[in-house]
Amino acid sequence: MEKFDIHILGCGSATPTTKHWPACQVLDIRGKLYMIDCGEGCQYNYRRSRLNFSRLRAVFISHLHGDHCFGLPGLISSMSLLGRTGILEIYGPEGIREYMDSFMKLFGARLAFEIEVHTIDCSASRLIYEDPSVKISSLPLKHRIECAGFLVEEKSKSLHLDKESCDFFQIPITAYKQILRGEDFVTETGETISNSRLTKKGCPPRKYAYCSDTAYRPALVPLIQEVTLLYHEATFRQSDLSRARETYHSTAAQAAMIAKEANVKRLLIGHYSARYPNEEGLLEEAKNIFPETIAAQENQIIRL
Predict the structure, then answer these.
(1) Which residue among 69, 105, 135, 218 has its CA within the 20 to 30 Å range from the CA of 148?
(2) What's the distance, CA 201 to chain centroid?
(3) What pTM, to 2 d.p., does this model score?
(4) Is 118 among the annotated ligand-binding positions?
């Protein structure tokens, strides 16, 4: 199975603590890197995780609160100093272009590579990015400002050649394409060898849903059904529900309820409020509802 790793570079919320960094994750899918959110100082943990700056394909910003985007200028400057030449694509909600324009006006002339900025429509789920390895769609979230989550789906082949069977039946290489299209093979003598004898079913595509800052939003459930891993913010405990509602955030219990309703395989919580000395209470609260829950930590790698 090909690589699909999630690197946690930051899982804290807006107020700085000595334990957690602001929001940032990097997905390593078949050797290509994709960043989701870029909180202040993310490049420090990027290096600690031994990730390659030149392999970063695109950055996806969920919303324009500082703990999710203040790391972009520093990251871009460092990549230029390190000799990056490939285009970097940046996706974000309304305002992302103005944010990047202000940075580029002051420092853009010194960059060694180009930046392409794309504005996301946060009102609905839409396909926003696609390459040979993945397709990424936006997820409409409910926060104090425009905010989008992201659904990342790997592209996988529905069929794989069974090489031993192909060799046994002496199938010519020129017939491999038609076999992978699902066709049977007919020999020169007219014998039909069924496709099922020459192929193996591919693994179901793995899916990762990233739900950044959001109030409890059951409308997400049909969009993230049965994903392999769901990241859902869990800023507060249920005892602080009034504060969660006031700030358009979720509690750990609410994150677990979304995971349970969507029948996801695993839940990853993060974006912990600085009011709690540790995340153990948040994790316990979520696991009471959805046992397959883990708590994000910096420099953690989760393999799908």
Answers:
(1) 105
(2) 26
(3) 0.88
(4) no
**304 residues of the chain, pLDDT tens digit each:** 789 999 999 999 999 899 999 999 999 999 999 999 999 989 999 999 999 999 999 999 999 999 999 999 999 999 999 999 999 999 999 999 999 999 998 887 788 899 999 999 999 999 999 999 999 999 999 999 999 999 999 987 766 778 888 888 888 888 888 877 788 888 888 888 888 887 787 778 999 999 999 999 999 999 999 999 999 999 999 999 999 999 999 999 999 999 999 999 999 999 999 999 999 999 999 999 999 999 999 999 999 9
Q: Is 68 annotated as a binding residue?
A: yes
* Domain spans of the chain, in order of start: 4-156+203-303, 161-200
Q: Is 271 annotated as a binding residue?
A: yes
- Annotated binding residue 63: yes
Catalytic residues: 67
The answer to whether 134 and 153 are in contact (CB under 8 A) is yes
What's the rounded Cα separation, in Å, for the pair 134 and 30? 10
Q: Is 101 annotated as a binding residue?
A: no
According to CATH, the topology of domain 4-156+203-303 is Metallo-beta-lactamase; Chain A (3.60.15)
For residue 144, count other CB atoms closer than 10 A to its CB.
13
d(CA 301, CA 20) in angstroms, rounded, equals 16
Output the CA–CA distances (angstroms, integers) from residue 254 to 14, 86, 205, 290, in the order listed. Answer: 20, 41, 27, 10
- Where helices occur in the chain by DSSP H, the ranges are 42-48, 66-69, 72-81, 96-107, 163-168, 176-180, 241-247, 252-262, 280-289
Q: How far apart are CA 296 and CA 9, in angstroms?
A: 9
